């Protein structure tokens, strides 16, 4: 197919077509794990916020949802609101986002509160110009040109992106997994260990593999639970 297209045009025509497509293609950025979380200022349901200020001294879970007044989003936002004490206990602030106006956000938060008694106290960004959604790769045009996908960014107190999840519009996220990964990251940082498959708080953790022969000899004489020299676990 490609050969047919190329052979049908001379070089000049080919490059003018290529330039047309390049000029008309929007490039969206997407932070990666380990990157500094891109900073921004935004209008939110608790007032104007600068992300780097909000992030100072605490973990932040920045998450997007497709739209206000939609069923899956209502269950998810309620799930985050219901875990207020958990996130506070783990020094973690929440920040939601959708491509809606501040008035839509306020009306939706109020409606959910009146109907169910659940109050979304965390800030929700009104990202009508899509600037934050584009900055964080939350707008994925193959899924929707106008609504953010369900993204989750776990950002540490140093402002580094530590974990990313992306879900499509029609699938709600798993709150237990969000909580599990937050605890796993914090436990890993505090103890310089790694977490095995399906790790849950209280389970044994993986001790880094030895990097010298002396460390290997020490490990052989240790009382770690050892599958092999490079795979050893301990209780915290
Ligand atoms: C929802 O939250 O229910 C939803 C939003 C956008 C597309 C599909 C579902």
Helix/strand structural class: alpha+beta
* H/I helix tally: 9
**Form type:** elongated
Oligomer: single chain
Biggest sheet record: 5 strands, mixed
* Portion of residues within helices: 25-40%
Number of strands: 10
Summarize, please.
This protein is of the alpha+beta class and 236 residues long.
Main attributes?
236 residues, alpha+beta, five-stranded mixed β-sheet, three-stranded antiparallel β-sheet, 9 helices, 37% helix, elongated, disordered N terminus, binds benzoic acid
What does this structure look like?
The protein is an alpha+beta fold. 37% of the residues lie in helices and 20% in strands. It is built from 9 helices and 10 strands. The protein has helices spanning 2-8, 11-23, 51-55, 71-82, 84-89, 102-116, 131-135, 175-191, 213-220, and strands at residues 41-44, 47-50, 59-64, 92-98, 124-126, 150-155, 161-167, 205-207, 225-228, 231-234. It has a 5-stranded mixed sheet. Strands 8-10-9 form a 3-stranded antiparallel sheet, with no helix packed on it. Strands 1-2 form a two-stranded antiparallel sheet. A hairpin with a 2-residue loop joins strand 9 and strand 10. The longest helix has 17 residues, at 175-191. The radius of gyration is 23 Å and the shape is elongated. The chain starts with a helix and ends with a strand.
């Amino acid at each position: 197919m490609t050969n047919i297209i190329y052979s049908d045009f001379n070089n000049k025509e080919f490059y003018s077509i290529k330039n047309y497509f390049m000029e008309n293609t929007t490039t969206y950025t997407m932070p990666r794990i380990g990157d500094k979380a891109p900073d921004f200022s935004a209008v939110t349901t608790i007032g104007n916020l600068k992300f780097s200020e909000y992030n100072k001294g605490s973990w932040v879970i920045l998450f997007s949802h497709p739209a206000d007044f939609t069923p899956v989003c209502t269950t998810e936002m309620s799930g985050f609101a219901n875990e207020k004490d958990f996130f506070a206990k783990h020094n973690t602030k929440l920040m939601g986002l959708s491509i809606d106006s501040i008035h839509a956000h306020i009306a939706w938060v109020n409606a959910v509160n009146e109907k169910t008694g659940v109050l979304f106290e965390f800030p929700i960004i009104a990202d009508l110009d899509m600037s934050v959604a584009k900055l964080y790769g939350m707008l994925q045009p193959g899924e929707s040109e106008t609504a953010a996908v369900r993204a989750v960014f776990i950002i540490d107190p140093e402002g580094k992106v530590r974990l990313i999840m992306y879900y499509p519009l029609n699938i709600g996220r798993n709150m237990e997994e969000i909580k599990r990964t937050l605890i796993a990251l914090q436990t890993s940082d505090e103890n310089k260990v790694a977490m095995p498959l399906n790790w849950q708080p209280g389970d044994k953790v993986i001790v880094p593999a030895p990097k010298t022969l002396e460390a290997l000899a020490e490990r052989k004489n240790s009382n770690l639970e050892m599958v092999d020299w490079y795979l050893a676990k301990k209780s915290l």
